[in-house]
Design brief:
Ubiquitin-conjugating enzyme E2 variant 2, Ubiquitin Conjugating Enzyme, UBQ-conjugating_enzyme/RWD, four-stranded antiparallel sheet, globular, alpha+beta
């Protein structure tokens, strides 16, 4: 039996970049509400990304756009990227001082930046029941 093929980090991230630019990496029902791309097009390590999430529709967060920073270190995709909310949000998986997301459950090599962002948008549905900071506030 053949050993599974392990896709190198750079190939996986190049594929994710292409998917992000084309908008094809985000499945329904999040398509059109989640976007991501490189923070610096000259970043040959493909490490630093920007992302945005439009809050879930028909919730108190549905009219807000949340900015995030995504960092894929050398251990990606064996480990999830570090994700930090720039826009303040009151969510159980988000550190209320730094904006850092604590954990992405179920992470494996087949997951992606889009997987993480869709997970966070799902979590926003529960978070919409909580008191939220005023729109436009950012973590320091």
């Amino acid at each position: 039996m053949a050993a599974p093929v392990i896709v190198p980090r750079s190939f996986k991230l190049l594929d994710e970049l292409e998917q992000g630019e084309k908008g094809g990496g985000v499945p329904a029902p999040h398509a059109g509400f989640v976007s991501y791309g490189l923070a610096d097009p000259e970043d040959i390590t493909l490490s630093s990304w920007n992302a945005s999430i439009i809050g879930p529709q028909n919730t108190s967060l549905g009219d807000r756009i949340f900015s995030l920073k995504v960092y894929c270190d050398d251990s990606y995709p064996d480990n999830p990227p570090e994700i930090t909310f720039v826009t303040k949000i009151n969510m159980s998986c988000v550190n209320q001082t730094t904006g850092v997301v604590s954990k992405i459950p179920g992470w494996n090599r087949d997951c992606s930046i889009a997987t993480c962002l869709c997970y966070l948008r799902e979590q926003m549905k529960r978070a919409s029941r909580h008191h939220q900071p005023p729109e436009g506030e950012e973590f320091s």
